[in-house]
Amino acid sequence: MKIAIWQPYLYPWALDFTSELREVSNSRVTYFCGGLFGNYPWKDLEDDPGSQVHRAGILFPYREIRKEKPDVLFLLGTETKTSILIWIMCKSLGIRVVPIVEDNLKRTHKGLGLRVLNSLKMQVLKRLYSSESLIITDSNEACGYLSTLGLFPGYRPVVPHGVNTDLFKPIPKDLDLARKLGILPDLLRDTFVLFPSDFSEAKGDEYFLYAMEILQDLKSIKFLIPGPGFDPSTPNIFYYPETLYKDMPKLYSLADIVVIPSKLYTDRSSDRSPNTLIEAMACGKFVIASECGGIPTYLGARGALVLPNSPASLANAISIYVSRTELRKKEGVLARREAVERLNNKVYAKRLWELIS
Predict the structure, then answer these.
(1) Taking a C-beta distance cutoff of 8 angstroms, is the pair 334, 304 a contact?
(2) Is the pLDDT of residue 46 over 90?
C-alpha cells in the first residue's frame, strides 16, 4: 500500500508520525507539505529524507501527489484552500481521502464579500465531509464542530496526535543552557515559569504579559520567555533565543511550570492542538493552560485549566501552584505517563493504521 500525508505547513511531529506510520504499516509513506510556517527555526527539517516540501510554485502539491498516486491520503488542514483542492483532485483520481479535522469553530466574517465566499466554501466542504465514510478528529471539540455544521458522517473517532516521547522526556535541569541564559545555579531553586511559544495573539501573549505584571512582586517566581537576552532591570525575567526542535527538551528541563495561555476566539477556531502542550507533558512538566480550542482534550485531567483571555485567572493559578511543589511533581509524572500512553506518535500511527486497514 502507498500512503501519503498532506499538511499545509511543516510540523516536526508530523515528520515523526510519518516515520512511525512507515514502521507500523510496512508501507511506502510520503509526507507532503507547503513549507515552513512563520519563523520557526525548523529549516533543517525541510531536508528530511521522508518529506517533500513545497518549494516551487502553487502547482507543486497537486503535481507531486498526482504522480505519487497513493492508495490513501491523510489530509490535515482540511479547511485551507490548498487542502480542499487536493481533496477534490484525489477524489477525481480515485484516491481514498481520510480527512483529519482540527478546526473547532466555524469561521465568521464581518464583510459581506467574505461572508459570501465563506458560505460557498462551507457548501463545498460539507459535500466533501459528507462523502467520506471515515473522518478522524483530533479533539472532542473538533468532533463537536462537525456536529454544528449539521454533519453526521458514519464514523469520526477522536484520535489526538502525539509527539516523539523518546525525544521529549524528563531530563535533569540543563545547567549549561541555564548558564548561557544567565541563570545562576542558586536561582534554579526558585520556580521557573516557561512560555514555550513565540509571542503572538493566538498563543495569548498579552494575557501572559499582564499576568507577569500581576506577579512581579513575587520574587520566588522567575519567567522564561522568548527574547533577545538578559535585562538587568528585570532580574526575574530570563530570555531564551530561537531553539532548534531537538534542543527543546533542554529548555523544558529548566521549567517548573509551563503555561499555554491560548486565546479564545469567537469568530474562528482557537488553538487546535498546541504541540508545546504535548511536549511539556511528555517532559513531565506541570502545565497551566487556557480552557479553549482542543486544549482540554489533550491536557485531560493533568495540570490546570484556567479561564481563557483572563490574566487574573492565569496569575492566580500560577501563584497557587508555585508553592505546591510536591503536587506539581506528582502531576508531572502522571502527565508523562499520559503522553506515553495516549499522546505518543507510535500510538497515533498504530491507531490510524488500524482505522484504514
Answers:
(1) no
(2) no
